[in-house]
Amino acid sequence: MGSIAYALVKMAAQLGVAACLLAMGGLYYYQDSLIYPSSLNDGRGYCATPDEYNIDYELVNLTTEDGETLQCYSMKQDSKDPSYANKTVVLLSPNAGNIGHALPIVAIFYEQFHYNVFIYSYRGYGKSTGTASEVGLKKDADRVMEYLAKEDDQYQASSIILYGRSLGGAVAIYIAATKSSYIHAMILENTFLSIRKTVPHIFPLLKYVTALVHPQWDSESLVPQIPAKIPVLLLSARKDEIVPPSHMDEIYNGLQSEYKQFDEFDDCFHNDTIMQENYWDIVYTFIKDKVNPVGL
Ligand SMILES: *[C@@H]1O[C@H](CO)[C@@H](O)[C@H](O)[C@H]1NC(C)=O
Ligand SMILES: *[C@@H]1O[C@H](CO)[C@@H](O)[C@H](O)[C@H]1NC(C)=O
Ligand SMILES: *[C@@H]1O[C@H](CO)[C@@H](O)[C@H](O)[C@H]1NC(C)=O
Description:
Layout: H1 2-35, E1 58-63, E2 69-75, E3 87-92, H2 103-112, E4 116-120, H3 134-151, H4 153-156, E5 159-165, H5 167-178, E6 185-189, H6 195-202, H7 219-222, E7 232-237, H8 245-254, E8 260-265, H9 279-290
Parallel strand pairs: 3-4, 3-5, 5-6, 6-7, 7-8
Antiparallel strand pairs: 1-2, 2-4
One 2-acetamido-2-deoxy-beta-D-glucopyranose (NAG) binds next to loops.
């Protein structure tokens, strides 16, 4: 009897360990599809184009150093117009959906504020080739910034403002820390210190295995490397259910920027900050008054 009980317990324990190893193995191999859910909302299917919002655009395909093709929408204002603002907003997407889903936001920057807007699909998203990964998304950002700062006359001559929410904020921080001479300002919304520090908040049971989480997006170490001359606006939803709002506080504290502005939105969550009443006033005032040429 005793030995049967022992054998059962042993078997259960072994099964438990096996199930646990399997789960951890699954986590290890499939986490990229959890972290980069590019198929959500039909993200790999239909991708809306700016003409559907009456915006003139150019479809630009950029080839990365490792051969992936990135689909980009380039939307320029008339640089000969006397009121031309000479400012370009680069939209860095969150981790779900495709660039078509961001067009209502693009339309505000382009139609209402009259800024140039550039948006691209990360590899593995929308109509871009490849599969998403941290190394890959950084190569994509490198390629896009080369294009904007060195290959296109109008963008090159303008003040470039990075605008990134969530994962897009991590890409913005990477660019600002490694290619600061290409950019003039940065706007961050509900972004995180690192993926590893975010996972336990979303999946509490995984807090013991965060060592297995391989995408880092270690913004925490990059933030202090961003030069003081770059003004930064931080937009923080205080009820963010995905990224703990304290991550935004710590990013703010880590920034060396001579000008940094923190705006809190008390009653909102990870993805509805943009719908708050004063959101667009704050964004517009920051770009108008803190980015050269001031007042446009
Ligand atoms: C860009 O690539 C897409 C396919 O990914 C193709 O349909 C389109 O013609 C290309 N555009 C340009 C300007 O090369
Ligand atoms: C446009 O912005 C760039 C970058 O800030 C600046 O160097 C350039 O002088 C500006 N040009 C005009 C015409 O405002
Ligand atoms: C926010 O995300 C949830 C799912 O996480 C979705 O159901 C909801 O529609 C989203 N809201 C907005 C405003 O995008």
